[in-house]
Design brief:
The protein is of the alpha+beta class. It is about 35% helix and about 25% strand.
Length: about 325
């Protein structure tokens, strides 16, 4: 988006930003927001504070203070975004996307930085990680929420947190717990998702999946092949195996119930899947060509559909990827 296009859209952008006016305590703080937003929408090669300020003709320090020192109600801004999305884009075909992003950092001063898995480079690296909830409906896409993942090493060192400006109430929570909080906030603001989707970093966490089931949220999630389970619901009991002792609060398998099996074993051996052909679905066009998934499906005894998929190669060539 170039300067000419931004100028043409400025009246509409100004009307949109007025919806957030009450989230800023002071007028001078509020006045810097359009400058920063326009910089982010521009075609600047670098969209950090200094190039944005220079392009807009405002003092660099002024815009730096806007981001680092001037107070605004971030919770109110987040809620307002959700309310606008719910009002203008709610309805059918709404999808929530849970994902995380990472940024490589040097040193040890940046809040949350440590050696951890860094998705942007595909390896363990010194970086920070943030968890996000996005919304998609047809051609409309937006971010609803985002939060820093604070590792345990940081959470346990409150002096380090104080030096980095991390508030006392911010402590370590698993990424799936952060994602669930974001989902609940979005629902509280009126945002409804027909479907929710996420990768195996979240799909492998049983408490997360159970929490979504408890909220009656439909989802399509990736899970690792070593995850175990059943396609046919096993028989369970709450009866005690002994006549004395505490009551059994957690259901357990009955004596003759089948044991859980790895997902890849179910794909290769379960009657509902082994005789079923992989069905190709073109998901989207990627940088290396069409992204194609191959899918099998099975319906368990509780009538909820289970899908298994593997990635097929983009058009043009390479061998198919291993099943997931």
């Amino acid at each position: 988006m170039d300067a000419k296009e931004i100028r043409r859209l400025k009246p509409e952008l100004s009307r949109y930003l007025k919806q957030f006016a009450d989230c800023f305590r002071r007028k001078d703080t509020r006045a810097h927001m359009p400058t920063y937003i326009e910089g982010q929408l521009s075609n600047l090669a670098r969209k950090s504070v200094e190039p944005i300020a220079l392009a807009a003709g405002v003092p660099v320090r002024t815009l730096q203070e806007f981001l680092s020192q001037h107070a605004w109600d971030e919770d109110a801004v987040r809620c307002r975004v959700g309310q606008i999305v719910a009002k203008e884009h709610g309805g059918k075909r709404t999808i929530g996307i849970i994902d995380e992003t990472s940024d490589v950092k040097k040193g040890n001063k940046t809040p949350g930085v440590q050696r951890q898995w860094c998705g942007c480079v595909g390896k363990t690296e010194n970086c920070i990680v943030t968890v996000h909830l996005a919304f998609a409906k047809d051609d409309f896409h937006c971010l609803l929420d985002g939060e820093l993942f604070l590792p345990e090493s940081w959470s346990e060192d409150r002096d380090r947190c104080d030096a980095a400006g991390i508030p006392e109430e911010m402590v370590y929570r698993p990424k799936w717990a952060i994602a669930l909080e974001q989902y609940d906030r979005a629902r509280a603001n009126g945002v409804a998702f027909e479907w929710l989707t996420f990768d195996e970093g979240y799909g492998s966490k049983t408490p997360f999946l159970r929490a979504l089931d408890a909220r009656q949220q439909r989802y399509v999630g990736e899970v690792p092949v070593h995850m175990t389970g059943w396609l046919d619901m096993p028989k369970v009991t709450s009866r005690r195996t002994q006549k004395t002792g505490r009551p059994c609060n957690i259901p357990r398998l009955t004596k003759n119930s089948p044991k859980p099996r790895r997902i890849d074993a179910l794909l290769d051996e379960h009657p509902a899947l082994v005789n079923q052909s992989w069905q190709p679905y073109r998901v989207k066009d990627g940088d290396k060509g069409p992204m194609v998934w191959e899918v099998k499906r099975a319906v368990d005894s509780s009538r909820s559909r289970r899908l298994a998929r593997r990635d097929a190669a983009p058009a043009g060539g390479a061998q198919r990827a291993p099943r997931r």
